[in-house]
Amino acid sequence: MAKKFQDLSPSWQMGVMGVVPVLLAVAIYVYWASPIAAERDALTAQVKTLRAQNQANRIFDQQRQKNRARIAELKQQLGELSAIVPAQEDSEGFISTIHNASLTAAVHIRNLVALPLVEHEGYTEEPFKAHLDGAYFPMLDFFGRLAHGARIVNATIAQLTDPKGGGQGHFTVSPTETVGVDCVLTTYFNSSKGTPPAAKK
Q1: What's the pLDDT band for 197 if we cut at 50, 70, 90?
Q2: Is the pLDDT confidence value at 46 over 60?
Q3: How many structural domains are present in the chain?
Q4: 76 and 33 co-located in one domain
Q5: Residue 67 lies in a domain
Q6: What is the pLDDT of residues 63-92, one digit of tens each?
Q7: Are 122 and 193 contacting, i.e. CB atoms less than 8 angstroms apart?
Q8: How far, in Å, are 29, 83, 163 from residue 108 at the CA level?
């Protein structure tokens, strides 16, 4: 016959009172706390993984920014080098450079003739035979402008003459013009030895 709780001895009552909270705690842990703890552990592991990925992505992003800056720097350098030594023949651009320098320096180009290209290993010379006349200091200014321009220009002076003759067509020599110059103006462009040059117009 079952006994009521009040019929139990004090020691049994104390034992039951001590066991009940333990059983409740076990039940709460098994049915409520344990799944939460498992979910917490899973979330903690996921957070660690995400942090590691974020750190890797942060390093990758920093490296990507450095690479972009380096690419931009190399593009700028390539543009500067292309201006100094073009990748291909640019006769019109070079003639325009000579013409602009002569106008600025007040020097007259009386004759300008393209000479055959001279190929070397990795680059090609593009020479032009020219006859110029003008005053002495403007002539120095003209050659100085070519020397300090964007493209590499080599000027080989064949001879200094008086400003009369040596050119093409009819022109009037000003009394202020004191010197004539026969020279070869040479610029360069990139090429491989043996590569046929572009056809001249």
Answers
A1: very low
A2: yes
A3: 2
A4: yes
A5: yes
A6: 888 878 887 877 776 666 555 666 677 788
A7: yes
A8: 101, 25, 10
